[in-house]
Amino acid sequence: MFxxxxxxxxxxxxxxxxxxxxxMSDVAASGGYYMAMAADTIVAENLTLTGSIGxxxxxxxxxxxxxxxxxxxxxxxxxxx
Length: 81
Hints:
By secondary structure, the protein is α/β, with parallel strands linked by helices. The protein has a single domain, classed as 2-enoyl-CoA Hydratase, Chain A, domain 1. The protein is about 50% helix and about 15% strand. The chain has 3 helices and 4 strands. The strands form 2 sheets. The protein has a two-stranded parallel sheet. The radius of gyration is 22 Å and the shape is elongated. The protein starts with a helix and ends with a helix.
């Protein structure tokens, strides 16, 4: 999923310096439509089959879990002495 976000981000960065136009012809499936959403303008033909954005992105926040794991390991080490 990170790769998809990076592509979308690069399109957005390019759009800051010049106009970006996404052109959809026959079919624009989920990923293609997601990339097109990063463009300034989307152009599609009358009969273009367009899919939904079935892309879900997210990031894991593990700092609390890793902290708790460290505390558990530390306590186990103390108790083992």
